[in-house]
Amino acid sequence: MRSAIFSYCSDPATLETFQWMSCYLTTGKHMAFYVSFGTVLLLLAITAPTALMFGFGGAMSARARFAPLSWLGRGYIAIVRGVPDIAFFLFFVIALDQGIEYLRHKVKCPDWDQPIRQGSDFIVCDIAKMPLGDSPQWIHETYGFALAVLTFAIVFGAFAANVLFGAMQAVPRAQIETAEAYGMTHRQAFWRILVPQMWTYALPGLANLWMVLIKATPLLFLLGVEDIVYWARELGGSKTAKFTAYPHPDWRMWYFFGLLVFYLAFTRVSELVLARITTRLSHGQATLGGEAQRKAS
Amino acid sequence: MSCYQTVQDYAFRAFGYGERLLPRSDFTLCEQFTLIGSGMMWNIYYGTVAVITGFLFANLLAVGKNAKSPWARKPAEWFIFLFRGSPLFIQFFFAYFLFLNLKSVSSIFDPLSSAWLGALIVLFLNTAAYSAEIFYGALRSIPKGDIEAADAYGLTGWSRFRKVMWPTMMRLAWPAYTNEAIFLFHATTLVFFSGFPAWRQKGDALYYANYFADKTFNPFVPYPILAFYFILLTLVIISLFGVINKRLNRHLPQERRRKLRLRPNLIR
Q: Does A278 touch chain B (CB under 8 A)?
């Protein structure tokens, strides 16, 4: 028998409901399920700043005076509009994987003469495979996770770019003109005047984006990461006594109910925290929110 | 096989008519266009029915959330929080397994666990919650003068709501509601990626696009085709909603009419 947390778990079939539950909920697989909540939080912690960086780059290039760069930025923002985001997720995960392997193939095997696409196959030389065929399991998982993060960052970067672009436009024009009248260059005015001021305008949009990002995390499942949705399906399915010490009927409904509650609690906590940040940030600002605070005090 | 033949075979494949077997090798561009387009009909079905039914329920919810009595307000608030606070993806999964459990209780619930009804109910409830929040916001921002004018005319209760408040609420909410409708149509692609099975490979556009991407291991053809269809659909929705928007604003002077602006709003 596998090692268990509670000593009485050695023979689950004889246990009372409560003890049975406490044993059942602490099996190795359930531990992996709890760890996968950490995976979701890790994804959020990495993706949010990365997407913000992508967004900042996108917004900056959309504002660029050099026309092709501006088109690139605007195109990046516009492309997420008309198309379902889930299609982007499914697309980018394969496209990124193939793109990386293609580049490695070109660099590492320059004298490969067969075509890469042969009918329904995508064939690159062995040392260009990502990750290498003989690497351990954890590298495969980390690589998959990294691809997922990059995909999320690209898609949400476009949303963030749109928010930041709007925020940059919302900073009063007179501020920039004043900066230029003081002899600042275009670059200086951007970094010293525009960027510090735009965050108040960007915050409502970014707060909304954070909520949306939370709600997009179950899509990790579609990208092949073993996340909470994967485990909920895996653990909830009906088990017979033949394969497990804890036989039970189909409990997937209850597992997904748990996930539903988890997400509701998570969004609620985020809402409260974001409301607090908004109050803090609009303190002393020349906006409606700041004005209301001034009057109230 | 000519392209005309392919269209004949697969144009209604998503509903189970025509050729039973999906193409298995040597995929042509024509096959991909036809099948993904065939799947689009499911997206249009889910989107249209959910938007229309959700619209009606959303009005009720918005008025409920605005009510003074906690008996009407609390349920509406909770309903809206429940569906806006959790991912649609998880809602689909939960609903599917819930329907499976109901199925074992009584055979009345059988159709619920198939996608055409079960997923539609989830989409209906979800869009009702999102739209209700939009309508509620619009209801709260009806100009005070409008209500005072209605009072001055002696309008009260239902006739005040019907003749003054509701048209203004619609007018204010419409641009945001257009976005909601667009993203509902996008959300319909999630149906066959959650619990709901595609029976006999009768799936929606993304289901077929994913099928081709899996078989050819080449995402660069099917997904752009899907994108093309969805951009087309988005344009159709915008123009339809634009006509209604024009009608809602027809009493206003030209410069005060609000143009529809597409804002990229988001996944649920």
A: no
Select the residue of B81, B89, B186 nearest A218 (Cβ to Cβ).
B89
Q: Which CATH superfamily is domain A7-296 in?
A: MetI-like (1.10.3720.10)
In this prediction the ipTM stands at: 0.82
Task: Tell me the shortest Cα–Cα distance from B108 to chain A, in angstroms.
Answer: 19
The residues spanned by each domain of chain A are 7-296
* Domains within chain B, CATH numbers bracketed: 26-256 (1.10.3720.10)
Tens of pLDDT, residue by residue over B162-218, are: 999 999 999 889 888 988 898 899 889 988 887 788 877 888 888 999 888 888 888
pTM of the model: 0.83
A241-250 long-range contacts, Cβ below 8 Å, gap at least 24?
A: A241/A13, A245/A1, A245/A12, A245/A13, A246/A12, A246/A20, A246/A23, A246/A24, A246/A27, A248/A24, A250/B97, A250/B100, A250/B101
Contact A94 B87 (CB under 8 A): no
For A184-229, what is each residue's pLDDT tens digit?
988 888 888 888 888 888 888 888 888 888 888 888 887 777 788 8
> Which one of A159, A208, A253 has the shortest CB-CB distance to B97?
A253
- Cβ contact B234–A81 (<8 Å): yes
| Minimum-distance CB partner of A264 among B82, B89, B215 | B82
Interface test with B, best of A77, A81, A270 (most B CBs within 10 A): A81
B190 at interface of A, judged by CB pairs closer than 8 A: yes
With CB atoms and an 8 Å threshold, state whether B223 touches A219.
no
